[in-house]
Amino acid sequence: MPSSKMRHGWAAIVAGAVGLLSGCAEDEHPPLLADGRARPVEGCEEFSYRSCDVLDHACQAELFQLVACLRGGDARAAELPPVRLLSESEAVAAVLDAATEPAAPLVDGQFEAMAHALELLGLLEPGLLGAESDVLDVMIQSVVALYLPATREVIIIDRGRARADLDANGVLAHEFVHALQDTEHDLSRFDQEPNQDSDRSLAVSAMIEGEATLYQLLLSLAYSGERLDNVDYARLFTSLRGQGDRLALGDASPMVTAPGIFPYTYGARYMGQHWLLGDQPALDQIFERPPQSSLEVMWREGLELPAVQRFLVLPAPLSGYHFLADDVAGAWVLFSKLLELAGDLTAAPALRELVLGWRGDRFWVYQSDDAEAAAALVWRIDWQDAEAAAQFAERYAAELNRADRPHPAGQSVVVDGVSTRVVIAEREADLPAWVLRASDGIP
Questions:
Q1: Percentage of residues in the chain with pLDDT exceeding 90?
Q2: What range does the domain containing 193 cover?
């Protein structure tokens, strides 16, 4: 997973760190290969298809060339990117050095205020996050490798022991896909897109990580002796979606964990379906027109994608308040939240169908000007029809009444046609006025 500043939504400041380092976990598994079991991929027969120690340069070179070949490139012409072996602390320092110019620097107290707002919305488990600086230190502990677009290098975490298992080989191959993507498509350009929000960044991440995960899976299948032309891809991609659902089931912080779940499951399914239709050229075309929302990644294959509303009108803050930040939750975060509330994986198909009726959302966060710094939030979600708006309102109201979440003095969930409007005010006396302001957040 690339370490980059691709996310501009404020809630994704933390999600960026989680998504950056999730999915490449340090798992202790024995090698899965036996002599002669691997099955070379047609056109890439020159490689050994044996798991090797990823700390070894020769292993790195072979894996990189094999990945280049799997993607349809000239393996011999592919130039191995710089690879550094670093300790966990050195890797943390390298990631921080590569992010010397964050997209939206935080002022004192802003991170805490943002985290508190997510807790009030039920999109972040209370007390999960302390300081912004803690996130990277925690997540790096479970990482095998990562790619840094800022320096165009791959970093492998060296913990003083060989890593010759198939999992480690697959992770390094995944990072090499990012290096090839960066050479061909310049991953940094996605940082500079206007009107970026957390949901749009999540969709772009699903494209980038989805392709890398796809080739990681193909490599693992070949190493395990599978003929790629005999794989039941429909079943494989359904399994990926199911894995995403299972991870969402127990997730009480979807706004933070989405980048560590969605791109590697639903994103891999999305890119895999396009790969089946046109191999690597079809994936290259997606990089020219990236998905604009998680809804697009989740959408039904073969059906026309509906338009999504962009809420660009800021509801004016009440007197004595100032606007703090805004963001888009998106279809995946809503699905993840509803599934966690349901607590039953069998509810996933019906809830997925519900969120496919999502047509856009945005929430705005405000804070009082006095020392108390009371929070107020306005969240508008539009749907394909009034029934979907009402269904979400009913289910989300259960979130606001949970005993394990912060309970502000004032909260309101109303349905207005195809819109669900959520208003939360820590000062109950201000709630009616904030409810009126919610109607200002029009597309």
A1: 61
A2: 12-298
